[in-house]
What does this fold into?
Amino acid sequence: MGSLYGENIKLTIFGQSHSPAIGMTLEGIPAGEEINTGTLQNFLNRRAPGNNEFSTPRKEDDVPEFISGFIDGHTCGVPLTAIIRNRDTRSGDYSELKNVPRPGHADYTGAIKYGGYQDYAGGGHFSGRLTAPLCVAGGICIQLLEKEGIRIISRIASIGSVEDKGPLEVSTSEKAFPVVDDECGQKMQALINETKEKGDSVGGTVQCAVLGLPVGLGDPMFGGMENRIAQIVFGIPAVKGLEFGKGFASTLLKGSENNDPFFADGGRIMTSGNNCGGILGGITNGMPLIFRVAVKPTPSISLPQQSADIRTGTSAILTVKGRHDPCIVPRAVPCVEAAAAIAVYDALLGRRKEITNGSAGLQENN
Amino acid sequence: MGSLYGENIKLTIFGQSHSPAIGMTLEGIPAGEEINTGTLQNFLNRRAPGNNEFSTPRKEDDVPEFISGFIDGHTCGVPLTAIIRNRDTRSGDYSELKNVPRPGHADYTGAIKYGGYQDYAGGGHFSGRLTAPLCVAGGICIQLLEKEGIRIISRIASIGSVEDKGPLEVSTSEKAFPVVDDECGQKMQALINETKEKGDSVGGTVQCAVLGLPVGLGDPMFGGMENRIAQIVFGIPAVKGLEFGKGFASTLLKGSENNDPFFADGGRIMTSGNNCGGILGGITNGMPLIFRVAVKPTPSISLPQQSADIRTGTSAILTVKGRHDPCIVPRAVPCVEAAAAIAVYDALLGRRKEITNGSAGLQENN
Amino acid sequence: MGSLYGENIKLTIFGQSHSPAIGMTLEGIPAGEEINTGTLQNFLNRRAPGNNEFSTPRKEDDVPEFISGFIDGHTCGVPLTAIIRNRDTRSGDYSELKNVPRPGHADYTGAIKYGGYQDYAGGGHFSGRLTAPLCVAGGICIQLLEKEGIRIISRIASIGSVEDKGPLEVSTSEKAFPVVDDECGQKMQALINETKEKGDSVGGTVQCAVLGLPVGLGDPMFGGMENRIAQIVFGIPAVKGLEFGKGFASTLLKGSENNDPFFADGGRIMTSGNNCGGILGGITNGMPLIFRVAVKPTPSISLPQQSADIRTGTSAILTVKGRHDPCIVPRAVPCVEAAAAIAVYDALLGRRKEITNGSAGLQENN
Amino acid sequence: MGSLYGENIKLTIFGQSHSPAIGMTLEGIPAGEEINTGTLQNFLNRRAPGNNEFSTPRKEDDVPEFISGFIDGHTCGVPLTAIIRNRDTRSGDYSELKNVPRPGHADYTGAIKYGGYQDYAGGGHFSGRLTAPLCVAGGICIQLLEKEGIRIISRIASIGSVEDKGPLEVSTSEKAFPVVDDECGQKMQALINETKEKGDSVGGTVQCAVLGLPVGLGDPMFGGMENRIAQIVFGIPAVKGLEFGKGFASTLLKGSENNDPFFADGGRIMTSGNNCGGILGGITNGMPLIFRVAVKPTPSISLPQQSADIRTGTSAILTVKGRHDPCIVPRAVPCVEAAAAIAVYDALLGRRKEITNGSAGLQENN
It folds into this structure.
């Protein structure tokens, strides 16, 4: 039951790489929310294939059709469903993969899980193509969050061992290659091109920050912001690691170094560092929520690879055909933003239930 | 709604550090499962406070009382509830913290979230003490998994910059300091002692492996094994990072290096490396499921720290009283095992729903 | 969050009466299940409008398009999504209803709930048209249950005060007017026609039986078969009552009369009556699961009715235009079967999780 | 997974009739809500056994101990857990029932479901005793609703064929025998006594009304108020039927009779009848929410009954020992109120998520 996410909103993602359509249903968005479809399309275009030299040449216009929940530019309160037709499918490219799984892919695990009835074409439901409906849902949540003064920014933090420089403070979404330091970006692109020419692929990391958050989003224990973001971010194919704030590097610090001191700024409580990534006890503390995601190198490469035939149980050499990205990291950037937006919006709705007349008590910033 | 976990089992954790009791309810365990309470107690003792020189001197015997679901050593099919009484509470130690939050702790976020009605004593529901009921649930799941031939092992992988050596292949659970290489363990302990003497704290990482898994556990998208494990592991206080298999280091590899080649071994399909950590497309591939967790340095330190009074909005210097661990990592080890066991057992039950007479098709290893 | 149902399957229903399409997503159906689309269409046709003289003349062919989860006649394990395009929409008929709600309808409650942003055309998401995707999901579950030897039968038990005669023992699904006693059916049809001519409407009851159930489906407390069936059956528009077995009439009996005695038949345990409707403690006892549903008279009638303008707060006389059924009961029959099938199939999957090697114990008699 | 209820709050009920304790966890109640434990105890006493001549002589003081989530008379935002110790248990009374199930009880279905590992003593988790924690949760929700101006009243509507007279307009909770017309109450009590003397039992109906509701609670489809109330009310043992407003009797009316006309009263929209029981399209319309519940005669009677030995597969005569109510209806009254309060409070929290700055539009009563 993997394709359902959320506590206060319920997101369902459906479709396969080569099924008639892919899509999403988002239930729980209040009625009367305006959604700008042009802005949404701009966001989707950042993820769409065929946009730049590093992505698969598969062409899909990826224009969602809203078939439920959307009238005259506004939500009407009932489930919001959008579908995207799959057009440029070449299932023939994948026929070999039914029996000889691609290393690093879900071909083998899907075949066993689904007893041979899996949709192997193009990776089926496991395909990166399914991040398109994720971005539809996320693009909507981004618009809803912006009305609350919450913004999500992100960047490619590294490709292979080439790291971006400088802090992530402003959006990189207008850039064709979303980094803070364009010189670093040039080096990353050179690395991707070099790798592509060898028929190989390369991974990287994406950093994301959520700005303008109120204090108090998230819940203790399994409902912390880390848990909520993790549950959705690991749903993006190829993500194998996640850390918040200082993350793994915090283990090299002493408590006295890692703790972010509080201070009062005109009555408002802030921290003078942000090693905790804006989350304490699972709950937002009003500072930027920051996390970093590890994206493994695209498993689909054109070099011959060692595999095995799962029906005959014999070894086999596989050369993957089809069209693939030498580096999925640039296209993962909007997906990470989408995932963050969905998780944060879900937590924001949950927070509304808590604020009662009864709890007259303590409030943020006074 | 953070204290509820699971899809096929439902785990609820309740209680606060200084409430009358803490406990857990686990629904969905089939009837007739034998649970050895002695084995469970041994597991709980690995986490219990006061056991060694690095942990808080707070003494709790941590013996769970089963008040529901358990008869004559077996589950009876209905919700399994166990409670642990809190005995050695010294709430007075915490009175200052109501207004002046400890840096790195949930004191501030809890105060705002709960409008001043939070239980601040001992960290309330955010306390590491709440990992005791997590370990009750996890210790039960470990026993249930062992009947299916699935074992969970783990170790301290690093303390500060001191790393354990050698691969994690056998259990370290019998050791007082759970590392593979005891010489490394000595260095880690020296570092902890040295840090303790300075009134400071230190973090580290825990590595965990799940052995003997069938192929096919987990679901695509948000129900992947990564997502499931992440959602529970980030519920352990102080966890700020998580990676599967090669994780962040995979971003430094090429696809041709990172992909784990398949081979057939007497008809069984295996991989010749395990960079993917036993998970492809969110689904177990039959190889060991491996992950690593970053545990930040304990935020409670005895050094004076900069904080602020959240009622007056003025700065304040805080010296934390109370009893605290200079390094939480050793006690986090069984918690990580518990979390993994709960996530895996939940996925295992989910897998049972899929195996039908209808799906005559392909099976693992034949 | 009303449009999501299920514990082991997750059913989402989306769309409005006059939106571009309506549809459903069903997650959790195992891979490799064959679905006969012809059989499914026959089932859908029983609910479709325009089939007989009592139903709305709105014409919709109601052929679902499977856009996810379905390949070569089999499920492939991922979310199963089907959509049905809305074609014969006449939104103009409904413009008056935006401000003057139809008595007995959701027009008013929807307007307030959704703050004026509701889709009022044709009842929006509240329309009986949304039972089409319910029947898609139910028709699929019926096929899956039949493979397990479980069959669902039903009938019109009454229209107004005209009751069907004889016990419900065989399917009435082949009949144009699904009753056991056709003479009673003639009287019912006469009553409907007579009511229709007056511009009025009439209600009735539907009885449903699930045959061939194993012992042990359902859970105690809120997961009983009654609870599960109730949660879905009250989702069919116009349903205002539900009873299991003897239901309300059992309150007129003594315990000695109402208790169904057990007896052993060649080792198999059965009951000699079925006042409990096949459910004891929420759990199936192996006898037919029987329930009865009250369907109120269709609220849309062509007689002028007293209403009020919700914007001006003044009284108004409403004459409902549009096309409506004088009696919704015949079309509710397949909907009730669909609802029962979904609830039972969900419980059946849940039962699979319980049957373990460990629970060697007692089994249902074989 | 039956013992978990709710969407915006999560209620878990645990324990068995003769386990060390029974209890409940309620997650999702905002922090800072005052709970008057004296008022709660008064409510619990209405349900407690041993209070009058019709109920089982089993004596339990039924005083809940709050072990989590409750400090200084207020909720603190984390899971609220209360336990009640079982004291007056006489498990020996039930030993025969392990193999020879009581007709009308869950003994047989529980035995098969749990493979012989069920807790048969006193009905285990299926016991009416488990309504005590339900009433703890419900009693809390009643207090929370009252702060919002929402009140729940109910009465015994019938015992056997003796009906209460007059409309349910004020609370009957102060009465020892909760009916509107005390003369009818006398006849009901005479019938119960007469039945008790014969060693038999009798059923009845309970009517419940929720007053002071805002418009807009509940959701379409499976989240309607009918669905929500049904899912919890059928969790009360012995409930076999449920109807809202006119319910089954509405099927005897024409649409023109059954539709409740709207009218405007000083700008406020109301209905001039309430056949719909205050619910249209699953959503509250601001009129009283009214429903009626059928409670079957207590299955435990002292008359000898026909049963069967489920291990030997032979017939057997059973004479039930133990202590039982000749009529459970009076004690069901507070349970029905509790169930209604939990369902309504859950829906009320859900409604908070919908009311946004964005939805500037239409509001109730202006």
Summary: The first strand of chain A starts at residue 4 and ends at 5. The two ends of chain A are 44 Å apart (CA to CA). DSSP finds seven helices and 18 strands in chain A.
